[in-house]
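INFO worker-7 received task bundle
INFO bundle size: 2
INFO processing item 0
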Amino acid sequence: MQSVRDGLGLERVHLLGSSWGGMLALEYAFTRPPGLASLVLNSTPTSAPRWSVETLRLSAGLDEEEFKRRHICRLDPEPELLARARSQFGKQVYETMWGPNEFTVTGTLKDWDVIDRLGELDVPALVTSGRHDECTPALVEPLARGIRGAEWVLFEESAHMPYLEEPERYLEVVGAFLERVEHQTNA
């Protein structure tokens, strides 16, 4: 992340990470980089072992397609944007890092857990997730509670992708958060 910032000349950034990207954003934030103005973390797990237990519970009795429709993206039909992203998905990297699917965490990240480190973060944070998310409220709550002063918005009509499932509201929530952060910075 720092090399991207350096290459683009970005001295100050608001960093958004969703799901796996939120895990990367957290790891970057733990390095306390200068110029990190805020974090927006969508459906971001804080513990791979807890994720595994919770997603196994959610997936009981469901085939993979039904699981996706209930807990990843509830839109029917699925947005073309999501279908295009899936077609370019790096399956080998995913399986090496995570495992064969969402609910079987056997990869190199199987023991990843940052719950006890969240108190180290001292940056404004917005945590978002969906009511029907595979990253359930039980998984998101430690993130929202662990980062001092974090705000948590639960999107009632969404699963894992409220930015696609409730885009107008998502943009409104994130925009208002960024405005508050900028106002506090400039005050």
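INFO item 0 finished
INFO processing item 1
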Amino acid sequence: MGKGIGLFFYGLLIVSTIDNLLLAKIVSAKTKVSPIVVIIGVIGGASLFGIVGIFIGPILLPLLITYFETFKERFK
């Protein structure tokens, strides 16, 4: 029982942290977007769309930011 609890906390603290940081670094390197935006996109996408949102969120959030910047420039 103790080993199972230890493994759970290891996965929760170590593996998920590394996964979130590496995902943000990889996506931001490929898309030229800030890692903060990617992390917010992953968290927001996962809360809105579930497991699929982990992939959809980092794609939609930069598009939404670009849309608002373009809208602001156009109707300034």
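INFO item 1 finished
INFO post-check item 1: The CA atoms of residues 7 and 13 lie 10 Å apart.
INFO post-check item 1: The helical segments are 2-31, 35-49, 53-74.
INFO worker-7 idle
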